[in-house]
Design a protein that fits this description.
This protein has 7 helices and 10 strands. The protein starts with 7 loop residues before the first strand and ends in a 17-residue tail after the last strand. Strands 6-7-8-3-9-10 form a 6-stranded mixed sheet. A 4-stranded antiparallel sheet has the order 2-1-4-5, covered by helices on one side. Helix content is 31%, strand content 26%. It is α/β, with parallel strands linked by helices. Helix 3 packs parallel to helix 5, helix 4 packs across helix 5 and helix 5 runs parallel beside helix 6.
Amino acid sequence: MNSAVNIIALNELSKIYQIVDVQVKALDGISLQIQPGEFVAIMGPSGSGKSTLLNILGCLDRLTSGTYLLGGEDVSTLSREKLAHVRNRKIGFIFQSYNLLSSYTALENVMVPLVYSRNGKLSHAERLQRAQIALQAVALADRAKHKPAEMSGGQQQRVAIARALINDPLLILADEPTGNLDSQSGAEIMGILRDLHERGRTIVLVTHESEVAAYAQRIIHLRDGHIETDHRNGVIPPGTPPVSSAQEG
């Protein structure tokens, strides 16, 4: 991709929810650009609009007005079917609750986006190989045949990261990725995300924890549907070495 093209470009984006006869403005005229390779944390109090913004960035919800360009493509008015295709092709999701299929093994969970991909040209063997490489990238090759109930929370989140990477997305969106983890597991997950960022991945993360946001190079604070502050962050906190075994496939 041409580095001059923003991964995310929002212009006067607004989102209004109609609740009975009352209009609630969740986002109010947000303009924002995120460049390739940036690691951005979005913060804000409950009701600030951060979850709504993440849903719109992930093409899970529609904006009410304004424009949203994802990698130069205007996705503001796409149909639901086309938005689903964009999600699968361009976005990798990491959720607080992992969202793994309980009856699937780690390897099968990682393969899910490939099954729904429109390329349709990969054989089963090729899908298996790509999923195995993705699990190796998060140091979980030895858990390939384990189901979620047989793994710790940190291991499940690593499977989710591998799944997010499997289609080589333009953008990774992480929604409170350490919210269900203890401090050690959380630090390991953030180390993996930091390593991915250092390898050129574009990551947007929503969090309410300042310790998590500190890993990002840029922090955006929302309040009442507006951007309150948008500033560059300092260095990554000391005492948080990278997860050396995590290598991007």
